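Q: I'm building a small set of examples for a reading group on sequence design. Run inverse folding on the following structure and report the sequence directly after it, with nothing in between.
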């Protein structure tokens, strides 16, 4: 059984979501403020976090950032009444995996949850290496000189996508669709989201590991081999 943590301060909405998800055979924990929710997200073993953006004490963006900084890769679905493009980009850059605007149909909520859970099913271990660096797809870990490097979930997904297509340049839309999904790719296409993430990845793993192909996009060179 999948376990979900819902952090939502609206008592009626929280009750309705919990009842709906329990009918769909999920185990649901809940919290009404950001501070309590963050503590539960850190302490409980959960499959997915549903997180309201505007919360008492600590907002959803700060919770996202703290969880990702701590290396917690649990899928996060952010709920908000602020569903304009800028707010969506801000939430995704904070570490959310998907974004659902209020009001919403529970059937759409369920579809988003199932899509995130499918995406998070562990894959078989695949390890790629070159020189001082090793990337393990199965465990979502990166090492340089034997030391662990902390990549945010979206950063790792970009590395994984480029690794699987190493030697072939991928444009911004291809990366957006692979990492954020087709719906979010259209929203994010005119933003600098990809550039920000690529820049962050290069700072952590080295500028030579991801090449810019002028007029096309980005690629990881073919010198990465499966080991």
């Amino acid at each position: 059984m999948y376990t979900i943590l819902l952090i939502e301060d609206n008592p009626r909405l929280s009750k309705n979501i919990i009842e709906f998800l329990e009918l769909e055979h999920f185990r649901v924990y809940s919290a009404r403020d950001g501070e309590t929710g963050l503590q539960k997200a850190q302490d409980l073993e959960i499959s997915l976090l549903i997180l309201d953006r505007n919360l008492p004490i600590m907002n959803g963006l700060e919770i996202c950032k703290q969880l990702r900084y701590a290396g917690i890769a649990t899928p996060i679905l952010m709920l908000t009444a602020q569903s304009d493009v800028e707010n969506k980009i801000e939430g995704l850059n904070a570490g959310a995996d998907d974004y659902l605007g209020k009001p919403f149909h529970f059937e759409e909520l369920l579809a988003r949850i199932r899509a995130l859970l499918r995406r998070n099913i562990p894959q078989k271990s695949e390890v790629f290496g070159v020189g001082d660096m090793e990337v393990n797809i199965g465990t979502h870990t990166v090492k340089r000189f034997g030391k662990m490097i902390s990549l945010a979930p979206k950063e790792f997904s970009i590395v994984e996508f480029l690794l699987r297509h190493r030697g072939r340049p991928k444009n911004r839309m291809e990366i957006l669709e692979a990492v954020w999904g087709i719906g979010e790719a259209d929203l994010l296409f005119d933003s600098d989201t990809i550039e920000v993430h690529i820049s962050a990845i290069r700072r952590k793993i080295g500028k030579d590991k991801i090449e810019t192909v002028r007029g096309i996009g980005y690629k990881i060179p073919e010198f990465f081999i499966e080991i």
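The longest strand covers residues 3-7.
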